[in-house]
Amino acid sequence: MSRSRSRSMIASTMSAMMALIFGIAAAGAGEANGASAASGASEANGAGAANGASAQTLPEDQVAAIRRGVQATLDAYREHAAAGRWEELMRLYADEPRFRWVASGIVEARSVDQIRKHLAALPPGTRVENTYQDTEITPLAPGVAMVMTQFQTRLVDPQGGGFAFGGALTMTLIERPDGWKILNGHASSAVRRQGSSVRGTSSP
Fold first, then answer.
1. What CATH number does residue 117 fall under?
2. d(Cα 21, Cα 12) in Å, to the nearest integer?
3. Which range among 30-34, 71-75, 120-124 shows the weakest confidence by mean pLDDT?
4. How far is the C-alpha of 114 from the C-alpha of 111, rounded, in Å?
5. Residues 168/36/103/23 CA torsion (nearest 10 deg)
6. Taking a C-beta distance cutoff of 8 angstroms, is the pair 169, 19 a contact?
7. pLDDT at residue 105, rounded to an integer
8. Of 20, 163, 39, residue with least CA distance to 104
9. Does the structure show a pLDDT above 60 at 27?
10. Which of 95, 186, 193, 202 could lock onto 36 through a cystine, CB 3.0 to 4.6 A?
11. Domain count, the chain
12. For 125, left (φ over 0), alpha (ψ -120 to 50), or beta?
C-alpha cells in the first residue's frame, strides 16, 4: 500500500475514532467527574435507587474497589491501543444497545460493531500512543463510574507517518462479570471560535 493511500485511510477514519481508541486509553493517573449522556445517567440513577446509595454514601472500601477496577480497564485499553491489539481492545467496551460515542457534538458510534469496522479499516501495524493529565475517576453508584481527563494522542502509521491531537474526554463505565466496560463517552478537541481570540472546546 502506498504512503499516500495509507495516510488517506487513516485520515478517513479519524473523525469516528477520535477518542474511541485514542482518547480513552489508560487514564494514567486518576479519578473522575462528568461524562456524556443519558444512558450513563440512567444507569447511575437506576443503580442508586436500587441500592439506596450515591457517590456520597458509598463505603470507602467500595469506592476504592471501583476505582481500582476502572483503572485496570483504562490501563488495559492503553496497552492494547499502543500495541494495535484491536480485538482485545474491543472487549473493553460494553457491547449493549445503550452504547454511544460522541465526538465534538456528533454521535459517531451507536454500537461496538461500528467501532470494530473503523478499526478494521486502519492499515496493519497502526498504533496509538496516549498521554493524560488531570484524570479523575468518580464512583457514582455500585457498578457505575465516570471518568474525565485531558488527553494528547499520537497516531502512528506503519510507514512512519501519522498525526497528533488532544482535548478533553469524559466516559461512563459500568461493571460486568468480566470487568469494567466503557458504556459511552464524549471527546472534544480545542478549537478557536471564529471572530474571537479566546480558545474553547466543542460542546461536551
1. 3.10.450.50
2. 15
3. 30-34
4. 5
5. 40
6. yes
7. 84
8. 20
9. no
10. 186
11. 1
12. left
